[in-house]
Each structure stands twice: as C-alpha cells, then as structure tokens.
Design goal:
This protein has about 210 residues and is α/β, with parallel strands linked by helices. β5, α3 and β6 form a beta-alpha-beta unit.
C-alpha cells in the first residue's frame, strides 16, 4: 500500500502485522529503509502491558534515528486487542528523516487498521514514550479542555451578572434558604466586591 511519501510496507512486515492481531505479540518495531517500512524487531508478551512497557520500548529508542513502534495493550474492542502507535522522531534526527516519517504515519495507520489503535502518539523525547509519560498523556486527555479567551470572558460576564442581580434584588442567588439583605448589608457587599473591605459576616435575625 503506497503512502503519501511513496513508502510501502514490505511483505515480511505485512505478514507480521497480521500475526500480531492474533494476540501473542507485545511489540513490533519498524523503520523505513530502501523505500519500504521494514520489520526491525518483534517482542512477545512477558507480563501485563504496564510491566512490559519501559523494558520493551526504551532500548529501541535511537537518539538520532526515527522509527515506528506498535505496542499491544491488554484492553480489547470489537476488533480485538487495542494497540498504541508510537512514532519516534528524535530532535537529533535529520530533517529529511523527520519529514519522511511524519508523512508516512497516516498511511501506516490505514495499513494496520485504524480501528485497532487506541492511541497514536508522536514522540520527540524519551520521557514522552515512557510509561510515566504515557500516563500523563492519558490524564491530559481526560482533563476538560481549557477555556478559550472568549469562553472565559463570557463565563466571567455571566458570573458578574448573577452577582449584581442578587445584590440588586436584595436576595442571595445561592440554592437553599434565601434571606433578604438590609440596605446597609447591600452597601457592605458592594464595598467587599470593590475591594474596600476584606471580610463580611452576616447574622440572620429570622431564626
């Protein structure tokens, strides 16, 4: 299958990719050479995916040469075991090599089958491709997306409107019991909002 870069996977690699989907292989290491994606190393399963991670992957990371790594997780989807595609492009790699691996990446995804991939990560630093780095990546994926400047401003305006509406009608906008505010209390709240005072204490006379 030709890639955007004109690179193809050789027959040995195609056969090994098909075998890998049966479940006995933990890792497949690949590099581009002679206008082909070539098989470099196959590692069988030894333990669970976490215990195999660093000891399988870290020794393969050449500081000057890029490579592709397929790593099998222990989780499954409707197709079978899920895999990570790790594209290792170190900062010290030649610019031409960086471009070649980046431009072939998507075609390799299609060759293997995108449905099998739980994640596809481009890595430039060894820490990024360690178990600790991958767990940070997973945590970031689960975290809510940061607000854009416009969203943050809109949220600030909405909150400000709620506060001013509560002060103007003399009632709290909090859930639960609502208590009326005296005129002096309203002035104190406004002074607090303006930073003129730093502490407020309210006492209800209705209980």
């Amino acid at each position: 299958m030709a890639a955007q870069s004109g690179i193809v996977a050789n027959e040995e690699l195609r056969a090994k990719l098909a075998e890998a989907k049966q479940g006995s292989i933990r890792l497949i290491h690949m590099q581009i050479g002679d206008e082909q994606i070539q098989l470099r190393k196959v590692i069988p399963i030894n333990g669970d995916w976490k215990s195999d991670f660093d000891k399988s992957i870290q020794p393969l990371l050449d500081p000057t040469n890029a490579s592709y790594i397929l790593y099998r997780l222990d989780s499954k989807n409707n197709l079978g075991y899920e895999w990570l595609l790790l594209t290792w492009i170190p900062n010290e790699a030649h610019v031409k090599q960086k471009t070649l691996y980046a431009s072939t990446r998507n075609t390799f995804r299609r060759l293997f089958g995108e449905g099998y991939l739980a994640d596809d990560i481009l890595c430039h630093d060894k820490h990024d491709i360690s178990l600790a780095g991958y767990e940070v990546h997973l945590a970031c994926k689960k975290a809510p997306a940061p607000l854009t400047h416009a969203e943050a401003k809109a949220q600030e305006v909405a909150s400000d409107q709620i506060v001013h509406a509560s002060i103007d009608d003399g009632h709290s906008s909090m859930g639960g019991l609502a208590f009326g505010l005296t005129a002096s209390s309203i002035r104190s709240v406004k002074d607090f909002a303006d930073g003129k005072i730093s502490y407020l204490q309210f006492v209800s006379s209705g209980l």
